Amino acid sequence: MKTIHIYTNGRFEEKQSGIVREFPLVLHVNGREIATLISSPHDLRFLVAGFLRNQGFVERAEDFHMLAVCDDFGIANARIRGELPERLKPVLTSGCGTGVTFTLETPKIPPPLALPAITTDAVFRLMEELARRADNYRSHGGIHSAAVGDGEGNLLLFAEDIGRHNTLDRIAGEALFKGIDLAGTILVTSGRVSTEMAAKCARLGIALIASRTSATDMAVKMCDEAGIPLIGYVRGGKFTVYAHHERLAMAPPVGAIHELPLPASAQGRRIPGITGVILAGGQSRRMGSNKALLPYKGGRFIEAIHRQLAEIFDEVLLVTNNPEQYDFLPCRKVADIHPGMGALAGIHAGLHHAANPAAFMVACDMPYLNSDLIRHLATLADPGGVLIPESPAGLEPLHAVYGKGCLAAIETTLLSGERRIVSFFGRTNVNRVNAEQVALFDPDYATFSNINTPVDYYRLRDGERDELDAALGADRIAG
Known about the structure:
Radius of gyration: 26 Å
Strand content: 25-35%
CATH class of the largest domain: Alpha Beta
Structural class: alpha/beta
Oligomer: single chain
Distance between the termini: 80 Å
């Protein structure tokens, strides 16, 4: 903190305030010094990786042989696959501190015309979330922010920096390391959209760019050519469209939007980008036998849960250290990487092996799962952290969505010997869906109920017989 003096009404007022930090980072690639990046001092590996990605020098995380950042001396060293061009012609870009790029050509990427139209509501929702996250700007100003989200306006990644171009590099680098595909996403930014920003978005496959301020004429031209809708001045329920307004879908009038439950068109469709994971590592001590294999709904208990998740997700995994007991399930079985560490180890294993950037985790003994609630949670998933629902009893970590971005935090927690699921929450982003929202789908919160004892199981079977008797009675009446 620093003592500053604010002039107002003819006098100075003394105040303690934070000052935005400016950090020069000298970048060496394959032994060559190629640039000095003027940036904010946090998460510099994301900045470097994204800068190199947006220059076209790397495409995948595997293209890095080595990446090291020395904060003490302000030096970053990278060894990458392939060689840099013999001659690099830097272009000083318009931006805070002046940015640098080595090309302003429009990347040869097919325009994203096959993607569905993006609703105006999604643009406003993501911009509102950007404003909510931008705490640094509100505290002492001078910081730019940017975020990417999906077509529904759900935030995926967020970045802040003194340079607006750096925020996009940070997002590109974090997405690269976390395996998040940016194709088809929406970018919102607090800063002006100029040519280098538009070129980077085109290279990343971003489907729409929206700014709180303006766009330059060259950025408009580039977005026209790349097929990217470009929006400026997103404020107070209004915005200006500079390119491809035809790719925007109007939101229904206020009062006509029904948030919950999910529309019928969304029901029955499988949700991309999320893996369903069933955790079957419990000891079933109170039940006296493996509760996952108990008879239920004409099959085994776990089969009913698998069928339900298979209707929602393209990929379903089973985490078990006894895969031979579940040969009848048509899904991939994976074992704990940290055996003996409870449900947290199961979440870690499922997330590690999932093909998607996020996974919905559920215990194998929860018979009342609500598909609409699961779909709602999946649409809000954060690949960089945890999305967890609440009930009157508290957090429900065995009915939650976990992103691959929190794998490192889980690993650190497990290696420390801690087994409680919530013990890693302080090391990652955690978003909650409150009990009131959950109740809109499941007023009794039955979806979080599990079967632990024979009494629980017999009560469940009695309910199943009551449902069958009621159905048979209805058939007799109809006949």
